[in-house]
Write a structure and sequence with these properties.
Elements: E1 17-21, H1 28-33, H2 37-52, E2 56-60, E3 69-72, H3 80-96, E4 100-104, H4 117-123, E5 129-132, H5 135-141, E6 148-151, E7 172-176, H6 182-191, E8 200-205, H7 207-215, E9 225-229, H8 232-239, E10 244-247, H9 262-269, E11 274-276, E12 290-291, H10 297-302, H11 308-317, H12 324-344
Parallel strand pairs: 1-2, 1-3, 3-4, 4-5, 5-6, 7-8, 7-10, 8-9, 10-11, 11-12
Length: 345
């Protein structure tokens, strides 16, 4: 299904109600404030567009009896067995009432052993359509799901900032992300000698990740590490103090297969040259970053300003596709198209 542009003033959205299945009920403000990226960059962005278009949205673990569309968000590993039973029962009841079941599938649990695999296997039995954040995830899912798949990317949270030129000192690199990605940074640091070419490596992550870093200094050798607690505002501030983004990925890790391009686009929006691996979702933007496996990435680390022109070009040509307003309209048009198609059937 390819979403089309819709007139927000149309009567077609007058009685559209959507329930976003999440572990807890959240207000619009809370959707934007959560530390769960899948909620901030997807549910919150969609909620803004729905609000502007008078599409009613409810959230939480109990599905509204009157919703016409159910979007199944990330269930999470916490209490997954109990929550899974409740969610599957709610999805089944909503399906029986005629609701359209949409699964927002952001991690490839069907392709690996995980505590959430069984939930997704069962929930797909009720799905009318599945949304994924990248073409790479779409390719992965086609081996497990023969139904319709739509691609809606993660939005970015930051305004574009031009690269900053600093002279007279060694560059500072920034790593940011979920603690589960720290292992890829550690793997990279085992063979990349950076202590002589970097002033510091700033690592922006959550409290659990910071505790792990502080408990395992042996993995970072003599490299000066500055841990920083992640918030949206903190990352933006830190980016102004850094010269490049160093984002090694789990290129060969099936858990990361199909990961979205969000970290790459975010770093570029913040004005940072990027050194990373070529995930499938990154490959369309290959010329705008330095590939650890295919380029002289050390030259970029030593002199990030050499990539500033590419960062500026990417900010102009690529980043606008990921603005919250743009992605939000895609969510809005997708929902209206779903409802319109069901009415026509």
């Amino acid at each position: 299904m390819v979403p089309r542009k819709s007139d927000c003033s149309s009567d077609s959205n007058t009685h559209v109600s959507v329930h976003w299945l999440l572990p807890s009920e959240l207000t619009l403000k809370q959707l934007h404030a959560t530390n769960l990226a899948s909620v901030r960059l997807r549910a919150a962005v969609a909620a803004d567009a729905f609000h502007d278009c008078n599409i009613a949205l409810s959230t939480g673990g109990n599905i509204s009896d009157f919703c016409r569309v159910v979007i199944v968000g990330k269930i999470g590993a916490d209490n997954v067995e109990i929550r899974s039973r409740s969610w599957i029962a709610g999805i089944a009841n909503a399906k029986k009432r005629g609701a359209i079941i949409v699964i927002d599938y952001t991690d490839h649990h069907l392709g690996q052993q995980s505590t959430m695999q069984e939930f997704y296997r069962r929930s797909f039995e009720y799905a009318d359509i599945v949304i994924v954040p990248s073409r790479a995830m779409q390719d992965n899912l086609q081996a497990f799901w023969r139904g319709q798949i739509a691609v809606i990317p993660d939005a970015i949270e930051y305004k574009v900032r031009a690269p900053l030129r600093r002279a007279g000192e060694l560059p500072t690199a920034l790593w940011f992300g979920h603690p589960s990605n720290l292992e890829y940074l550690v793997q990279f640091l085992q063979y990349a000698s950076l202590e002589m070419v970097l002033k510091a490596l700033v690592i922006c992550t959550d409290a659990r990740g910071i505790n792990w870093i502080q408990s395992n200094p042996k993995y970072f050798g003599r490299l000066h590490i500055t841990p920083a607690l992640w918030t949206v505002q903190a990352l933006e501030k830190l980016s102004c103090e850094c010269d490049l983004a160093l984002l090694p990925t789990g290129l060969n890790d099936p858990r990361k297969s199909g990961a979205s391009e969000n970290r790459l686009i975010t770093a570029i929006a913040l004005g940072l040259p990027v050194v990373t691996h070529s995930l499938s979702s990154y490959e369309p933007y290959r010329k705008y970053y330095s590939d650890i496996n295919g380029d002289d990435y050390m030259a970029v680390i030593k002199n990030p300003t050499g990539m500033h022109n590419l960062v500026l070009a990417a900010q102009k040509q690529i980043v606008p596709k990921y603005y919250p307003h743009t992605v939000g309209l895609t969510w809005r048009d997708f929902i209206l198209k779903c409802v319109e198609s069901r009415l026509v059937l």
